Structures are given as C-alpha cells and as structure tokens.
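Q: What structure does this chain adopt?
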Amino acid sequence: MEKKRVGILRGGMGNQYTSSIRKGGDIISHIFENLSEKYKVVDILIDKDGNWHANGLPVVPADLVRKVDVVWNTSKQPSLSIILDNFSIPNIGSSSFLKILESNREMLEMHMKSIGIKMPRFIIFPKDAREVFEKFSAPWIVKINNEIKLVKTFNELVETIKDRTNVIIEEFIAGKPSTVHSISGFRGEDIYVLPACNAFSIADAGRPPQNFTADEKEKIIAFAKDLHKHLATEHYLKSDFVLHPKRGLFLTNIESSPDLRKESHFEQSCQYIGAEMHHILEHILDKTLNKKI
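A:
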C-alpha cells in the first residue's frame, strides 16, 4: 500500500514559535515510532522570518500541493490555515477563530462570557502587585511566558513579577480540577469525550486530586461536548476546568493539539479506555484524508 504523505507544519512568526516547533516535533516522532508503515512524514518548517522549508529545502506554499496529501498544522498563526485552504490542501488544526481564542486570553474570556461560560478573573501585564491585589485577593496564579506559579502572599507576588514582562495574573479557583479531551467522530460518536479525570499541575497546587461523583462527571462531559460544538472544533479539543463546590464550573484553558509526550494526561486518558495515542492520531488523519465530517 502506498504511504500517505503527511506534512507537519511547525514554527512560524510570532511568540508561539518554540511551542509549535516542539508540538510538531512530537507529532513527527509519534508517527515515525507508531505509524510509519502507513504514513510518510514531510517536515514543513516556517522560520522566524516567514520562509517555508520542506524537509530542509526552501519551498513556497503552492509547492506543497505536489508534496503532501494532508498537513497537520501546529502553528498558531491564523493566516497559515487560510493559505492551506486556498490551495485546497486537506489540513488538520484549529480554525482561524479558535487559534485566535487560544492565543488571546482577553478574547477567549469575552467569547466565553457571551455564551454563559465562566472563567477566572485575570489581569494582563499589570503595572504592579498593588493593581492585582485591588482587583482580587490571594492566592493568585502567575503566568510568565511558559512558567506557571501559585503565589499565596502579596510580598511573594511583588518579588515574582518584579522586572518581568509578559505577565498574566489569574484568580485561583478553589475546587476540583479536571482536564477533558474531546475528539470528533471517534468510535462512531459525533463527539467522543475521554473520561473526565483529575488534572494536576503547578497551577493546581492546593487542589489535591479528588474523585468526581458520577453526577459531576456527567456535568463535565456535557459541558465539554457543548464547548466542542460551540467552537466548531473539527478534530480535537482539550478543555481544562475547575469545579467549584458552590460557583460551579470554570473554564481555565483550551488547546487544539494533543500532548503526545509520554505519561501526559492525554496518554493516561487514552489508556483508560484501552486506546493508545497513535490510535487518535490515525483516526484524525484518516478522517481528514477521507474528508469525513
């Protein structure tokens, strides 16, 4: 059987370059290790100056029509999805709208508010710790570039954000954290949701993992399906929630590309249902190649 050529598009201009390089590299490695009998990888790299390369050689986007059968786009640049669509190249990745929401916390909260979904309060690029303290009290989740830290006192906040840039401060929501992965069309379902499991990270310090009741799991899964539908997610969505005992569900983050690293939450969730991560990748690739909605 002739192998299908899968282009992995990564890099691009902007502050998500490094993240895209890593995510694309993870997909390349995963296909090589688990699906190499079925797919041939073409590494499509866009450098920081916007120059395109395919397996190390310079190309222009139009060249990809003859080089790939499908493209998995890990870049966060909305314009790249439009370019691929303009050349009628089947592609996997979030829509331009979803990419904007992923990379813009203010727009994400504004959109979620319009559909009745709560998110923690936040401040982007605060002038100082006093501005944060006056808006909402401790503890705070501090996000600086790719670093996440739980800060419990005002003095600690002062030291944490002193002389730092790209700072986002988020309200800490006490409750049960959960991460839910939803996949379009998997196992014959319009939206297949992997079982709701506890998430735990630095940002969840002080929220030790707890078991969800059957009713809580049902609410989280229904919420994740509604979000998947509302965002018109074509392939995959990761939704992070916190369930507050009185204030209900809060959405804390969304991602449109699965984490394929060993022992990731995604891998553990797949194993819980007797699947492997490459089964999901294969499903998404075949669905796109066959143009099944």
